[in-house]
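Need residues for this backbone.
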């Protein structure tokens, strides 16, 4: 069986809903509370590749105050600056994220993760 992981924030309703959905389908998951155990920049870059998104901001919570505080709303912000900000402020990473091997999906809506499990 694949080693499925979820980047989880127990305070987030979408994160809780996604975890519950996986559990209801008897899908075993490793829970990573990424606010308690932050990801490295290399792990975040790898996650971005697995998510197969068009741009880095699609994996970020752009409405968080830290996004603006880090100056990321400037048009000339680089991806390197965005990755560094996600290391510094883990809450900027969109949640939840389910990872299965070389694929990952953001659980918004929660059912979208079922494509990869």
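Answer:
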């Amino acid at each position: 069986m694949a080693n499925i992981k979820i980047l989880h924030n127990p305070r987030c309703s979408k994160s809780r809903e996604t975890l519950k959905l996986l559990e209801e389908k008897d899908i075993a998951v490793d829970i990573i509370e990424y606010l308690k155990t932050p990801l490295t920049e290399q792990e975040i870059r790898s996650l971005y590749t697995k998510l197969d998104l068009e741009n880095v901001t699609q994996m970020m919570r752009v409405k968080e105050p830290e996004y603006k505080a880090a100056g990321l709303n400037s048009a000339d912000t680089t991806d390197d600056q965005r990755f560094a900000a996600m290391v510094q402020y883990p809450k900027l990473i969109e949640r939840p994220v389910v990872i299965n091997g070389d694929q990952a999906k953001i659980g918004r809506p929660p059912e979208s993760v079922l494509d990869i499990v």
